[in-house]
Description:
Strand content: 15-25%
Oligomer: single chain
Number of strands: 11
Distance between the termini: 33 Å
Radius of gyration: 19 Å
Mean pLDDT: 84
Low-confidence stretches: none
Amino acid sequence: MSFRILLLEDDEEIGEFVAQGLREEGFVVEHAADGHAGSHAITTSAWDLVILDWWLPGPDGFTLLRQFREAGKTTPVLFLTARDAVAQRVEGLNGGADDYLCKPFAYEELLARVQSLLRRPSVLAGSELRHHDIVLDPATNRAERAGKPLGLTARELALLLFMMRHPGEVLSRTRLYEQVWEEEYDGMSNTLEVHVMELRKKLEAHGARLIHTVRGRGYMLGDPADPEGV
């Protein structure tokens, strides 16, 4: 189940530990270490869950939470607070957090809280993505075009999912490697190109081309009329 999680945690060691653990569970995780980067990530991308630390450089966690809810976002938020900060926990819940976890915490408990929040009907109901005649449901790993199942591999599914989260956006090879393969792009491998080619074949068996190559920049999931190589 390729749910997207935004982790806002300024402690590098904690952040990397949690991000790696969640990725090993199959989640797509983006980690931001300060309030400015967090604010940008929250407002420019769609997320299934936000894990939000109170103490962040720049805008703090509560400020981001308040802005997030004032913008009408209903994405579940798991708030991280210090164990003795009762007032923060209350303020966070009153400000729109769905749950909180006190530091220090056991990873197993955090994972259980994450899984519980993602099982909420409101999350699952909103998880289905559509782009033209493509339908992808991360909750069931169902992908189809024009009503026909696509039979995607796990990597192809993850690649299509990320593109459908960012329609009309030029996605660089580096970004795709980091988000789908969770590793740095070395500039030499043609793994991405091979997977894009196979994904295109399966999609174009049922309709016009939607994944376009943007020369020198990367790939874009666009409209059938988009010219190749814009």
